[in-house]
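Support reply, case 0932

Customer input (verbatim):
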Amino acid sequence: DEGAYTPFPSVKYLLSTGERLIGFGVWESSAGDSLTPKAGRIYFTPVLETTDTDDDERVSNTTEFKGWIDVARNAGAEDRALGGPMDGAFFAFQSRGVYMFVPTGDANSPYQRITLSTELGAVSQESTFMGEDEAGRACIYFLDPERGPYRYGARGLQWCGYDNQTL
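Our regenerated output:
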C-alpha cells in the first residue's frame, strides 16, 4: 500500500521494545521522503518480521494504519526523553508531561496513551533511566526541572527528594 514503507523521521530519542522501534522528538520540521516530523509525536515501526523487509526502518502512513500517536502536541512543552520498557509499557517525557504507552494487543491501534502528569516532566534523556525500587521492583527514575528526583513504579509517581529537600 502507498505509505506503508515511509522512512522513519529524524528523531532525537530511540527505544526498542523488543518488537518495535519507538522514536520521539524531532530535529527538523521537514525531511524529504520520510514522514513529516512533528514535535510531541511518538513514531513506531511495525512489529519486526511482519513483512519480509525493512520493518525496523519504516513507519506506516496509510489510510488504514498510522505508525504514530500524538503525545501532547501544541502543549507548549519540549520533548525530552523516552524510557522503558517496563512491564511492556514505555514512557515519553516532555518538559511538562509524563506519558505512559501501554500495549493494547490491537494491531491497528497498538498503544494506549495514559497521561501520568501534566505538571511533572524530565530535564533530559540523560536524567531518565530504568532502575529498581527498595523492594527490587522495576521503576523508571527521572529528574523534574523544578521538583527534583521522581520515580514511577508499582506505587505510581513518587517524589524521591526527601533526603535533600532542605538543600
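We compared this against your earlier run and they match. Two observations from our side: Residues 139 and 153 are 4 Å apart (CA to CA). The chain has no helices and 14 strands. Please reopen the case if you see a mismatch on your end.
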